[in-house]
Design brief:
Blueprint (H helix, E strand, L loop, with lengths): L12 E5 L4 H12 L3 E6 L2 H11 L3 E5 L5 H15 L4 E4 L15 H28 L4 E7 L10 H28 L5 E7 L2 E2 L1 H6 L9 E2 H11 L4 H4 L2 E4 L3
Helix pairs in contact: 1-2, 1-7, 3-4, 4-5
């Protein structure tokens, strides 16, 4: 990936939150291969370190409970110390809980989904917003679901939490617009990446009987993420980029 002809390739600092899973590994690897400085964050030290090794040399793993605002502030300090101010955050934290219908949507499931989908995103965005807005190529992206297109009773809590996360991200996009207007920049963008489900080679090996119709491969997600940093901010800010086939 490069800038205008003759310009040096972009070399940005990108934080991948929820970096322990297959999507985190794929995204971190693609960003590293594109020449960026990559920091991954996860709540379990052994898992995030193992994921960083999978992603490749140069990916720095950090441990953080993203549901705790003070911990996210410390993450910012640690990430900046090892890789410089953060230009982009790719937020891959999530979770899934379902039920039979509306009456059995439990408080336990709601609390879990709200914390995973909303609280972590709010904390990360509040702490890193100014850094992203100040970057010449600042980007924030989250992953959402096609289930929001037609919410079902069985996934009411899940889609409600995802909808809240999307609304927050669109509000961030407005914040970036206003920040750009104030300083004449126009460089930062917030984007929602929409998938039906994510699939990777390990999942396919574990379930050879399944075809995973409509699922997006984590490698395709990673390609889309890398592309965000070379796309004009005005073209992607406040958009829902659908990656589902």
């Amino acid at each position: 990936m490069s800038g205008p002809q003759g310009a040096e390739p972009l070399k940005l600092t990108v934080l991948v939150t929820g970096g322990s899973g297959a999507s985190g590994v794929a995204v971190a690897r693609a960003l590293r291969d594109a020449g960026h400085r990559v920091v991954t964050a996860g709540s379990d030290q052994a898992r995030i370190e193992a994921a960083a090794r999978q992603a490749g040399d140069g990916v720095t793993p950090l441990v953080c409970d993203l549901a705790r605002l003070d911990d996210v502030r410390q993450l910012r300090n640690e990430a900046s110390a090892v890789a410089g101010p953060v230009d982009g955050v790719i937020h891959l934290v999530g979770g899934w809980r379902g039920a039979k219908g509306i009456p059995d949507q439990s408080d336990e499931d709601w609390d879990f989904l709200h914390q995973a989908a909303v609280t972590t995103l709010r904390n990360v965005s509040r702490v890193f917003f100014d850094d992203i807005a100040a970057s010449r190529h600042g980007r924030f992206a989250m992953v959402s679901s096609t289930a929001l297109d037609k919410p079902g009773a069985a996934v009411a809590s899940y889609v409600a939490a995802k909808a809240a996360a999307e609304a927050w991200t669109m509000a961030m996009a407005d914040g970036f617009r206003k920040a750009a207007t104030a300083d004449g920049g126009g460089q930062a963008a917030a984007v929602v990446l929409v998938v039906k489900a994510l699939v990777d080679d390990g999942l396919r090996r574990s379930h050879p009987e399944r075809s995973f119709p409509g699922a997006t491969d984590v490698k395709d997600l990673a390609t889309a993420v890398v592309g965000l940093f070379s796309s004009p901010a005005d073209d992607v800010n406040g958009t829902r980029l659908r990656l589902a086939p």
